[in-house]
Amino acid sequence: MTKTIRQQTVIKASPRAVYDALIESKKHAAFTGKPARNNRRVGGAFSCYGDYIQGINVELILAKRIVQAWQAKNWPKGTYSLVTFALAKAPGGKTTLTFTQIGVPASDYKDMSDGWKTYYWKPLKAYLE
C-alpha cells in the first residue's frame, strides 16, 4: 500500500532560483550538505543525499515544474514514487512551492513526510533567503 505526501511552502526567492537549487548538482549539494548528481534533461538520471535517493527526470519546465521518479535506497527493488515540485510566483519576489509525492510506501510515509520539511524546505529556505 502506498500514500501521497502533499506539502506547500513559500520561499523568499524567485521561481528560477528555487528551480536551479533543486536541479543543479552543486546547488543541491550546497543546500542539503550531501552529494548530488543531476542534469537538466528529461530522461536523465539523478542521485541525491549520496546514493540514498536515485531516479530519473520525467518532466522539466524551467522555473515552473520538476517531475521526477524517485527510489529510496531502503525501498524494495523496483519501487518508485513520483515527485512533483510546482513553482509559482508569489508577491514580493517569492515562490510558492507546491510539492506532491505519489507512491510512498506506507511504512515510510511519516519519515518521508517529516524529512521533506527537515531536510529540504528548511535548508532550502536558509540557502536561498
Global morphology: globular
What fraction strand? 35-45%
Low-confidence stretches: none
Pattern of helices and strands: EHHEEEEEEH
Query: Radius of gyration, rounded?
Result: 14 Å
Q: How far is it from the N-terminal to the C-terminal residue, by CA?
A: 38 Å
Provide the residue-averaged pLDDT.
96
Provide the structure class: alpha+beta
| Helix proportion range | 25-40%
Sketch the major β-sheet. Answer: 7 strands, antiparallel
SSE topology sketch:
Elements: E1 2-11, H1 15-23, H2 25-32, E2 36-37, E3 45-48, E4 53-61, E5 65-72, E6 81-90, E7 94-105, H3 109-128
Q: Your description of this structure?
A:
Helices cover 29% and strands 43% of the residues. The model has no long low-confidence stretch (mean pLDDT 96). Helix 1 (15-23) packs across helix 2 (25-32). The protein has 3 helices and 7 strands, in the order E-H-H-E-E-E-E-E-E-H. Strand 3 and strand 4 (53-61) form a beta hairpin. With 129 residues, it is an alpha+beta fold. The N and C termini lie far apart (38 Å). It has a 7-stranded antiparallel β-sheet. The protein is globular and about 40 Å long.
Structure keywords:
129 residues; alpha+beta; seven-stranded antiparallel beta sheet; 7 strands; 29% helix
Entry summary:
With 129 residues, the protein is an alpha+beta fold. The chain contains 3 helices and 7 strands; from the N terminus they run βααββββββα.
